[in-house]
Design goal:
The complex is a heterodimer of chains A (252) and B (387).
Chain A lengths: L11 E10 L2 E11 L4 E5 L6 H8 L7 E6 L2 E2 L4 H10 E4 L11 H12 L4 H14 L15 H13 L5 E5 L7 H16 L3 E5 L3 H7 L2 E6 L2 E6 L1 H6 L4 H11 L2
Helix pairs in contact in A: 3-4, 3-5, 4-5, 5-6
Chain B lengths: L1 H5 L1 H34 L29 H35 L3 H15 L3 H13 L8 E3 L2 E4 L2 E4 L1 E2 L3 H23 L11 H21 L8 E2 L2 E3 L2 E3 L2 E3 L1 H27 L3 H9 L4 H31 L3 H4 L4 H12 L2 H30 L9
Antiparallel strand pairs in B: 1-2, 2-3, 3-8, 4-5, 6-7
Helix pairs in contact in B: 3-4, 3-8, 3-12, 4-8, 5-8, 6-7, 8-10, 9-10, 10-13, 12-13
The chains are: A alpha/beta (252), B alpha+beta (387).
The structure holds adenosine-5'-triphosphate (ATP) and magnesium ion (MG).
Adenosine-5'-triphosphate binds next to strand 2 and helix 1 of chain A.
Chain lengths: 252, 387
């Protein structure tokens, strides 16, 4: 079992991670250490393995080689370890993935009540608090299909937060959104970052990376090509592939 | 005048009038011809025959029936028999279909292969052949004296004998109603807006109601037991015959099995399709929140799959309801067979067929209406869904 705050060491430790889809190698010897409270932004061209990497951290994908240690617990075939890690790691998806047959409130209360065995009244209070935090308290009784994309994504963030996770993973949280809704979602994530949440965020929003990231990771071809604090990353990038990528996302 | 004909509204109205008019003309002509023919054969038309006694017996009836009973009573028995066979057949088909359908979506290769084989075989053999096959199997079971026996059940060529409570039929009916209430009441309590309690907190009342209804059923059964007899009546051999217990005749068993197995193969495909329609994203979100596989299935996959399945399932049910008319192939007195016998004995062809059509229309329209309501009640709200 994980005892989040007490165990020492990095929040996430990835060592020599290999991942294959059939014979195709999606991750090659990826190593990454994320400290508690650290904010990581991952970027890179399409198909470079960004999603694969962060999905390995909560075992939505099973890795084939190397080690992943989350909050001191190794992620292996032990079901107890997997459950324990998923409890402490929240995830936000590109397409929100809300449960369409439950109200916003029910979406937020489900996992705390079942997984953490929180009493209903407490779960509801927590859910309402986080809905307030993502600035949609008035939508609690609506269904996901009745909300805009930006609102849905904020519900998804609140849903993950209701589990009180130690670490949050974001996989392109704004790339399915219309431009005018991107800011409202990013604002919520920025607030979260400023409160010291450990987070790994895959995104191409470079302004956001500059504002919140402690470190920017650039991936290509299943490898981490370069990592640096944002100032350094955006101005003094040495790597040819990074510069090319940056000129594409920043250019115009 | 010409310009009037160019007007779209006028044109549409004119077409409607022509269409309805020609259909009405055809129907009227048909009735006139039929009346003439019947009169020529000396058959009086009309529904007076409904009140004459039939003069023939039924081999299966849930209600008391003798040859002295009038036709309308037989029709009622026929509808009840059809509904009974339909309910049993559809329930079994749904169970079979769910199991096979889940096997087809499982990650186990052998289960998938078995499921696929099942569907391929039973979906592609005509129902009538399957009915004959099961009838042959059942009628070739051993005689009562050499019956297969287990847990008080007896399997013979004269049907399946099962232990049955020794209670009065009134008590039995009351107990059945109580069991239905035990299922229906909690559902109603969960949905009604008359209760001030929030929907999520009604679990206690729902459970209490179900328990109370079941307790009522038990009390009624015990109170209504026949004097001086054990509560459960076990079938047993007496001389050459089996006595006691409840006998499920081979004809009914044949049809129930055939509908269960044939219908199950279609329902399996619907179940599989329903589960395939569930977004991978919702399942991943549930997993990432730490929900276990069973919870993901019960709280996310099943509810979403049900919503995808229900409209198609309703069609399938309506269609399987009509398949109960296979009763005539093995001599089970369902509604269709009773109508056929009526035509033979009374000669009131048109009236009887009218009643048949009205009966099936009523059954199937009610079924469709029920499903429409359920569909509406559980439909996903909003139109902004993605992923
Ligand atoms: N389930 C899968 N089966 C086979 N190949 C896969 C699967 N998922 C991903 N891949 C492959 O693995 C590689 C990495 O995919 P991944 O989704 O991690 O890329 P990404 O960096 O997230 O890209 P994007 O920016 O488009 O989301 C890609 O080449 C992709 O085709
Ligand atoms: Mg991706």
């Amino acid at each position: 079992m994980i005892s989040g705050n007490r165990s020492s060491g990095p929040a996430v430790l990835i060592e020599n991670l290999d991942k294959y889809y059939g014979t195709f190698q999606a991750l090659r010897k990826v190593s990454l250490s994320v400290d508690r409270g650290e904010r990581i932004v991952v970027c890179g061209p399409s198909g470079s393995g960004k999603s694969t990497m962060i999905r390995c951290i909560n075992r939505l994908e099973q890795h084939n080689g190397g080690r992943i240690t989350v909050l001191g617990t190794e992620l292996n075939d032990d079901v107890g370890n997997i459950d324990g890690i998923r409890r402490e790691v929240g995830m936000v998806f590109q397409h929100f993935n809300l449960f369409p047959h439950m109200t916003v409130l029910e979406n937020c209360m489900l996992a705390p009540m079942i997984v953490r065995k929180v009493p209903r009244a407490d779960a509801e209070a927590t859910a309402r608090r986080y809905l307030e935090k993502v600035r949609i308290p008035e939508q609690a009784m609506k269904y996901p299909g009745q909300l805009s994309g930006g609102q849905q994504q904020r519900v998804a963030i609140a849903r993950a937060l209701c589990m009180q996770p130690e670490i949050m993973l974001f996989d392109e949280p704004t790339s399915a959104l219309d431009p005018e809704m991107i800011a409202e979602v990013l604002d919520v994530i920025v607030t979260l970052a400023s409160e010291g949440m450990t987070m790994i965020c895959v995104t191409h929003e470079m302004g956001f990376a500059r504002r919140v990231a402690d470190r920017v990771i650039f991936m290509d071809g299943g490898e981490i090509v370069e990592q640096a604090p944002p100032d350094e990353f955006f101005t003094f990038s040495r790597n040819e592939r990074t510069r090319q990528f940056l000129s594409q996302v920043l250019g115009h | 005048m010409v310009s009037l004909l160019r007007n779209q509204k006028v044109r549409n109205a004119l077409l409607q009038v022509l269409y309805v008019g020609s259909i009405a003309a055809m129907v009227l002509a048909g009735i006139a011809i039929a009346r003439q023919n019947l009169a020529a054969q000396g058959i009086t038309s009309g529904f007076d025959f409904l009140f004459k006694s039939t003069g023939w017996d039924l081999n299966f009836s849930l209600l008391p029936a003798t040859a002295n009973d009038p036709y309308w009573w037989y029709f009622l028995i026929g509808i009840i028999n059809t509904l009974f066979l339909g309910t049993v057949g559809l329930t079994l088909a749904t169970i079979v279909g769910t199991i096979v359908g889940l096997a087809r979506t499982s990650s186990n290769e052998l289960a998938r292969l078995l499921g696929r084989t099942y569907v391929d075989i039973f979906r592609n053999i005509p129902l009538i052949l399957q009915v004959f096959f099961w009838y042959a199997v059942i009628t070739h079971l051993p005689t009562p004296r050499a019956a297969h026996e287990g847990w008080g059940f007896l399997l013979t060529s004269r049907g399946l004998y099962i232990p049955f409570p020794n209670v009065s039929s009134a008590a039995l009916a009351a107990a059945t109603l109580a069991v239905i209430a035990a299922i229906a009441l909690p559902i109603w309590l969960g949905r009604t807006s008359r209760l001030s309690l929030p929907v999520g907190q009604r679990g206690g009342i729902q459970l209490a109601c179900a328990a109370a209804a079941l307790a009522c059923a038990a009390v009624v059964l015990v109170a209504g037991r026949l004097a001086d007899l054990p509560l459960l009546d076990f079938p047993a051999l007496q001389g050459l015959n089996l006595r006691g217990g409840l006998r499920i005749p081979p004809e009914f068993a044949t049809l129930a099995i055939a509908i269960a197995i044939y219908g199950g193969s279609y329902i399996a495909e619907i179940v599989r399709g329903g589960f395939k329609a569930v977004g991978k994203g919702q399942v991943e979100a549930a997993l990432s929140l730490g929900l276990g596989p069973w919870r993901v299935f019960m709280l996310v996959r099943l509810p979403l799959a049900l919503r995808a399945m229900l409209p198609i399932l309703a069609n399938q049910y309506v269609w399987l309801m009509k398949a109960t008319t296979m009763g005539i192939a093995v001599g089970f007195t369902d509604f269709f067979m009773i109508v056929a016998l009526t035509i033979n004995h009374s000669g009131q062809t048109i009236e009887a067929i009218g009643i048949l059509m009205a009966g099936f229309l009523a059954i199937n329209l009610s079924l469709a209406a029920i499903f429409n309501r359920i569909n509406k009640a559980i439909a996903l709200k909003g139109n902004q869904l993605r992923g």
